[in-house]
Amino acid sequence: MSKITPFLWFDTQAEQAMNYYVDTFNGAPHKKGESKIVSITRYEKGMDAPGAEALEGKVITGIFELAGQSFMALDGGPIFNFTEATSFYVECEDQKEVDYFWNKLSTVPESEQCGWCKDQFGLSWQIIPKQLGELMGDPDPIKSKRVINAMLQMKKINVADLQKAHDGK
């Protein structure tokens, strides 16, 4: 079976983003696997790509891994931008991990809602504790609905508040 790898188009900051993401995931309270830069190929003088002169030294392709998931990155210029239509879901072990990733990745307060945030590069992330799915999946529809309603009022997900909603407190 073919492997699917997310491909991220940056203006000129692919290498900065790769380094930031690798450092962020390697510093997480509960490491989710090894995070690393695997390889970088750069634009060089004399390449025949459109706009290559302006991108000399920048990343043509960079391969990196976050928690064992491969990604590719590109410095392609300002042609395309990230939108909220694509986001990366990070399942967190506990509130400590939610807080860690939120503090590292959320830089656009107006984009925060229901565990979604946007980083300094414009990429959207979902920082979600595993307890959210467990509590929302309660077979009691009243408890499940209270959890969903509580989550809909949150920016960063708060596990203790979800549990209170679940318990009817």
Could you describe the 3D structure shown?
The chain is elongated. The longest helix is centred in the first third of the chain and has 13 residues, at 14-26. Helix 4 packs parallel to helix 6 and helix 5 (141-152) packs antiparallel against helix 6 (159-167). It contains six helices and seven strands; from the N terminus they run E-H-E-H-E-E-E-H-E-E-H-H-H. It folds into two domains: 7-75, Signal recognition particle alu RNA binding heterodimer, srp9/1 (2-Layer Sandwich), CATH 3.30.720; 87-167, Roll (2,3-Dihydroxybiphenyl 1,2-Dioxygenase, domain 1), CATH 3.10.180.10. It has helices at residues 14-26, 52-55, 95-105, 130-136, 141-152, 159-167; strands spanning 7-10, 36-42, 59-66, 69-75, 87-92, 116-118, 124-129. The protein is 33% helix and 24% strand. With 169 residues, the chain is an alpha/beta fold. The strands form two sheets. It has a four-stranded mixed sheet, with helices on one face.
What labels describe this entry?
single chain; 169 residues; alpha/beta; Signal recognition particle alu RNA binding heterodimer, srp9/1; 2,3-Dihydroxybiphenyl 1,2-Dioxygenase, domain 1; 2 domains; four-stranded mixed beta sheet; three-stranded mixed beta sheet; 6 helices; 7 strands
